[in-house]
Amino acid sequence: MDGGSGDLRSTIKKWNIIYPVYLNSKKTVAEGRRIAAAKACPDPTCIEIADCCSHLKIPHAIELDKAYPRDFFQVGRVRVQLKKDDGSPVNPAIKTRRKVAKWYW
User: Fold this and answer.
1) One GO cellular component from the entry (predicted)?
2) N or C: which end of the chain has fewer CB within 10 A?
3) Which CATH architecture has domain 8-101?
């Protein structure tokens, strides 16, 4: 029934999650921002984060039907594959989620 996409879906579940609120300069740390306000940008979207991942050649998947757990009005998230199955980085310049955020801005 799923056309073979079940394997892909189970693989994507292992990837890291980036919510746009993590990069939003208008949010406080208590509201969910995870990087310095000086390095963040105002109101990022999942599409913009995905564009940055494409530029960096990082495999990603946009999940528009998911919401940020602390605020259900913040809809959408991006799953990124930072490491291969053997543990080596997909892009040697990007090893952590914070490095993705640095490249985003």
Assistant:
1) signal recognition particle, endoplasmic reticulum targeting
2) N
3) 2-Layer Sandwich (3.30)
